[in-house]
Design a protein that fits this description.
Helix content is about 30%, strand content about 30%. By secondary structure, it is α+β, with helices and mostly antiparallel strands. A hairpin with a 5-residue loop joins strand 7 and strand 8. The protein is globular and about 45 Å long. The N and C termini lie far apart (about 50 Å).
């Protein structure tokens, strides 16, 4: 039984160290703007309006290995108070993480939801965030711009990307309503 603990401990150490080396290899590829094709002009049939990031969001975006954009509706009827957060990355990074983690860190209670498949067949992770009487329904996904592969679990995406089992760049899309 002692050897099982030793093997498990070894696996944990390897799992912790591998991203440091794998990330370094991927990090050698450019993080420049040359591969970024720009922000989409619309999302789910509605025109996107870009908003400035808050000071906190801008600080995060500055250290993010890619691009971060915050968008809202164009005022068309039926959209409501929807915000779309787009994150674009070329390399595997732990800085692309679930919005539930960010909201939880700022005091929101998170209620996990089900995996949603939208009308276009895309899968989304969903959750509800509550704080001080405010309620937000959130859905998010990551997908490869190169292959169309998709993930609803950030950790699954990270390990696929870190181990070279998927091709980037990738888009992280979060919709808050």
């Amino acid at each position: 039984m002692r050897w099982v603990n030793f093997v498990f401990g070894g696996i944990c150490v390897v799992a912790t160290i591998v991203p440091l080396f794998v990330g370094g290899a991927h990090g050698a590829r450019g993080l420049g703007d040359e591969a970024f094709t720009g922000w989409p002009s619309s999302f789910e049939g509605h025109r996107l309006v870009r908003y400035d990031l808050s000071a906190r969001e801008a600080a995060f975006a500055e250290a993010f290995p890619g691009k971060v954009g915050l968008f809202g509706s164009d005022g068309e009827a039926g959209i409501g108070e929807r915000r779309v957060i787009l994150r674009w990355v070329q390399v595997p990074t732990r800085r692309l993480h679930s919005s539930a983690d960010c909201l939880r860190a700022t005091g929101y209670a998170i209620e996990p939801g089900k995996i949603l498949r939208d009308g276009g067949g895309r899968r989304w992770a969903t959750f509800r965030a509550r704080k001080d009487g405010s309620v937000m329904d959130v859905r998010e996904r990551i997908y490869s711009a190169a292959t169309g592969e998709e993930w609803t679990d950030v950790s699954a995406w990270f390990w696929a990307a870190a181990m070279g089992r998927t091709e980037g760049p990738w888009w992280g899309v979060t919709v808050v309503e």
